[in-house]
UniProtKB/TrEMBL annotation:
<dbReference type="InterPro" id="IPR035976">
    <property type="entry name" value="Sushi/SCR/CCP_sf"/>
</dbReference>
<keyword id="KW-1133">Transmembrane helix</keyword>
<feature type="signal peptide">
    <location>
        <begin position="1"/>
        <end position="20"/>
    </location>
</feature>
<dbReference type="InterPro" id="IPR001846">
    <property type="entry name" value="VWF_type-D"/>
</dbReference>
<feature type="transmembrane region" description="Helical">
    <location>
        <begin position="732"/>
        <end position="754"/>
    </location>
</feature>
<feature type="disulfide bond">
    <location>
        <begin position="697"/>
        <end position="724"/>
    </location>
</feature>
<feature type="domain" description="SMB">
    <location>
        <begin position="27"/>
        <end position="66"/>
    </location>
</feature>
<dbReference type="InterPro" id="IPR000436">
    <property type="entry name" value="Sushi_SCR_CCP_dom"/>
</dbReference>
<dbReference type="Pfam" id="PF00094">
    <property type="entry name" value="VWD"/>
</dbReference>
<keyword id="KW-1015">Disulfide bond</keyword>
<dbReference type="Pfam" id="PF23263">
    <property type="entry name" value="C8-3_MUC4"/>
</dbReference>
<dbReference type="GO" id="GO:0016020">
    <property type="term" value="C:membrane"/>
</dbReference>
<dbReference type="InterPro" id="IPR036024">
    <property type="entry name" value="Somatomedin_B-like_dom_sf"/>
</dbReference>
<dbReference type="InterPro" id="IPR001212">
    <property type="entry name" value="Somatomedin_B_dom"/>
</dbReference>
<feature type="domain" description="AMOP">
    <location>
        <begin position="284"/>
        <end position="432"/>
    </location>
</feature>
<dbReference type="InterPro" id="IPR056619">
    <property type="entry name" value="C8-3_MUC4"/>
</dbReference>
<feature type="domain" description="VWFD">
    <location>
        <begin position="444"/>
        <end position="630"/>
    </location>
</feature>
Length: 768
């Protein structure tokens, strides 16, 4: 896998092959059926704008759309930009992924509209456009389908007091339910409100296992589009009761109820407690218990997915720093108030980025405010792994890989059955136990920031101010390549920056590698994280990952510069890692880039930068620099090079951020979960080295064994869990004591009597 990175004095993140020979600017050939291509006459590739090489009809056939993204549930109306259609048309057809078609239209202004379809996948979906009712599809573009939980609140139906909806029919929950929505998102006079149900049928993990959304029934028709609707739920008819997970949809009342792929708003998927039948309302606990037992029986027949899940990070700091393999769980995020509905006691949860290879399952890890794992063995709020990864898994479309929905069927609705609607949570937790962290190994971290400065995976650091294109990282293990383009000063302070709207871009790869580009003051900062399996497989400016910083300055030839190499020697080290044309990943989308980098040298040999040992801060700034930078030589260098304290401060902060993250990713020893004694309990839920767990017995029991156990550096507990043995009461003890004394006294009396009888028998025996 190859990535393109354009940090600091540059553009941001693109991936494209080298364009090779550039076409003439006055080319006339068409882009019909050819978007994304180059040819001899003109270009249909997005880079053609900066090169003035686009075919004249580029915008007519290579489509830009607005908006460009929406929920995978579909129903989003989008407009094709730059395509004005005033000719008669037999019909507008929009085709997604070469398989799903929706009907579009041309409005009174000649603008072409499409409606996004109901999909069973997320990501970039190619689409083509027909203006002749499907006879030909010469135009193409890309639609971005997103997970329903990431859709803006203004773009979907809101279940007011959502918890009430999902507990409706249980004890104390009845009455009216209310829906709200943004009327501007669905401009029409009247609407129809519908219920749709989701199910997955067929034999699990077989080819006939399929996912399906079904229209069930309309809650209301021809309702005023007021943005507000209240109703009293009625139990569903028998033929609809098998659907327990679903969503509400509103459409223009002019459409037929249940009509697919029309402009619509959807609610979040949710547990359909409010829709279930009379048997649920008559005794919700008994009904839910039956469902829980049925789920438990099914789980026992399915493959064990837990064995292929990765262990969790040991600490909250590790979990938030290991961004290549774990990502914030949308339902429990410390940066958004820690509203952890399903994990009480947690302040933050993360999910594994990648689904497991065979069963497409997902890991979840939750943490307390103290930064330690919250385990289901200790709390109902502990993290629970998922048979269906919440974010789905490529190639999507079929169970258990459907984003969000497979997870709801196999992991969430069963939680309602066992834990929320019935007191059977122990059954759920036995089949969804939290993973501990004994086998977790944190990733290694390398960074580039500031003017730029580099810190390698093994901790070596240097400054390299080259002008050209360079290899930050090559990893033969997975064919991972990260390249960078550095350009000289274009502003008085030496920075030129062009970034996307977000101030941080993250890339997570299936190998577990992660790459982040973020804004730090006036600079871009680049961070690369690699799992331990990349040991000995890397080279480039970010060094040789092998736990030995002394060989990080290794040239392509294998020659190793010493750790104390001079700035001039390190400049030659950087130059040696210039990109080669044949392996360039970078895009050349302007004539300047073509002339300076595609046709010019990959490393400019005439460019001589300022070296750290050749400059000192302005004498008037000496005191301020010392106060700001301290012993941070990167900070001092950037102040001296630019004359700006704010630039130096940005560099200082970037370096401190790197250091904090390295500290967060230090290995931690875990001894694993320690059970409380039977008929007793324990104090403490921290199982890392140095932690001590104290044991106590319930009333009427006495501790037999150690009162505490400490996690040792070798990963074992100092003592096993003790036992709690029944304690005898004082009355019982006194009874035993006095009873024993009575027995002894009785035995003494018997002994005396027997001795006397023996004496008498001796006397009687001497008589004649």
């Amino acid at each position: 896998m190859k990535l393109l990175l354009l940090p600091w004095a540059l553009l941001l993140l693109v991936t494209a092959p080298s364009p090779g020979r550039w076409p003439a600017a006055d080319a006339q050939e068409s882009c019909s059926h050819r978007c994304g291509e180059w040819n001899e006459l003109c270009s249909c590739h997005p880079t053609c704008f900066g090169l003035d090489s686009c075919c004249k009809d580029f915008r007519d056939f290579c489509l830009e759309i607005l908006p460009y993204s929406g929920s995978m549930m579909g129903g989003k109306d989008f407009v094709v930009q730059h395509l004005n259609w005033f000719s008669p048309t037999d019909g507008v057809i929009c085709r997604f992924n070469e398989s799903v078609q929706t009907r579009g239209h041309v409005d009174s202004l000649g603008h072409v509209h499409c409606v996004s379809p109901l999909l069973y996948e997320t990501g970039r979906i190619p689409f083509t456009l027909s203006m002749d009712n499907g006879s030909s599809f010469p135009r193409s573009g890309t639609w971005l389908a997103v997970h329903p939980s990431k859709v803006s609140q203004t773009e979907k139906l809101q279940l007011e007091n959502e918890t009430r909806w999902q507990y409706y029919g249980t004890a104390g929950t009845k009455g009216n339910l209310t829906l709200t929505w943004n009327t501007a998102a669905l401009p029409t006079q009247s609407v129809t409100i519908e219920l749709w149900g989701y199910e997955e049928t067929g034999k699990p993990y077989s080819e006939d296992w399929t996912a399906k959304w079904s229209y069930l029934y309309a809650l209301a028709t021809n309702v005023s589009n007021s943005g507000f609707f209240t109703f009293t739920p009625e139990p569903a008819p028998q033929n609809y009761q098998r659907w327990e997970v679903g969503a509400l949809r509103i459409i223009n009342s002019e459409y037929h109820s249940g009509e697919k792929d029309v402009h619509a708003l959807w609610s979040n998927e949710h547990a359909l407690a409010w829709h279930l039948g009379d048997d649920f309302r008559a005794d919700p606990v008994a009904w839910a218990r039956t469902q829980c037992l049925a789920w438990e029986e099914l789980e026992d027949q399915l493959p064990n997915f837990l064995e292929e899940l990765p262990d969790c990070p040991c600490t909250l700091a590790q979990a938030r720093s290991d961004s290549g393999r774990f990502h914030t769980d949308y339902g429990c995020d410390i940066e958004h108030g820690s509203e952890c509905t399903y994990h009480p006691g947690a302040v933050h949860c993360v999910r594994s980025v990648q689904a497991s290879p065979q069963y497409a399952s997902g890991q979840q890890c939750c943490y307390t405010a103290a930064g330690t794992q919250l385990l289901t063995a200790d709390s109902m709020g502990g993290s629970t792994p998922d048979r269906g990864h919440d974010w789905g898994a490529p190639p999507f479309r079929a169970p258990p890989r459907v984003p969000g929905l497979s997870h709801w069927l196999y992991d969430v609705i069963s939680f309602y059955h066992c834990c929320l609607w019935a007191p059977e949570c122990s059954r759920y937790m036995r089949r969804r136990p939290s993973s501990d962290c004994r086998s977790y190994r944190p990733p290694r971290l390398a960074s580039a920031f500031g003017d730029p400065h580099f810190v390698t995976f093994d901790g070596a650091n240097f400054t390299f101010n080259g002008h050209g294109e360079y290899v930050l990282l090559e990893a033969s293990l997975t064919n991972l390549t990260v390249q960078a383009r550095a350009q000289p000063d274009t502003t008085p302070e030496g920075m030129f920056l062009s970034v996307a709207a977000e101030d941080r871009v993250s890339i997570m790869l299936s190998s577990g590698a992660g790459l982040e580009v973020s804004i730090q003051g006036p600079f871009l900062s680049v961070t690369v994280l690699l799992p331990e399996k990349f040991l000995t497989y890397t080279q480039g400016l970010l060094g040789t990952l092998n736990d030995n910083f002394t060989d990080d300055f290794t040239l392509r030839s294998g020659q190793v510069l010493p750790p104390d190499a001079s700035s001039q020697e390190l400049f030659q080290f950087g130059a040696d890692w210039a990109v080669e044309n044949a392996s360039s990943l970078l895009t050349y989308d302007s004539q300047l880039l073509v002339n300076n980098f595609l046709y010019g040298p990959k490393h400019d040999p005439t460019f001589r930068p300022l070296f750290p040992d050749e400059i000192t801060p302005n004498s008037s700034q000496t005191t301020e620099v010392a106060k700001l930078c301290g012993d941070n030589h990167f900070c001092s260098f950037d102040v001296a090079a630019t004359g700006s304290l704010s630039v130096g401060n940005a560099t200082r902060m970037a370096y401190q951020l790197h250091q904090r993250r390295v500290q967060s990713l230090q290995s931690v020893v875990s001894c694993g979960w320690l059970a409380p004694p039977l008929n007793g309990h324990k104090d403490g839920m921290r199982y890392l080295v140095g932690s001590t767990i104290h044991f106590h017995c319930d009333t009427g029991y006495s501790l037999a064994g150690a009162e505490a156990s400490t996690c040792q550096a070798n990963g074992t507990w100092s003592t096993p869990t003790p036992t709690c043995q029944p304690r005898r009461s004082h009355t019982v003890l006194l009874s035993i004591i006095f009873g024993g004394l009575a027995v002894v006294a009785l035995m003494a009396v018997v002994f005396v009597v027997l001795r006397r009888r023996k004496g008498n028998m001796a006397i009687w025996g001497s008589q004649p």
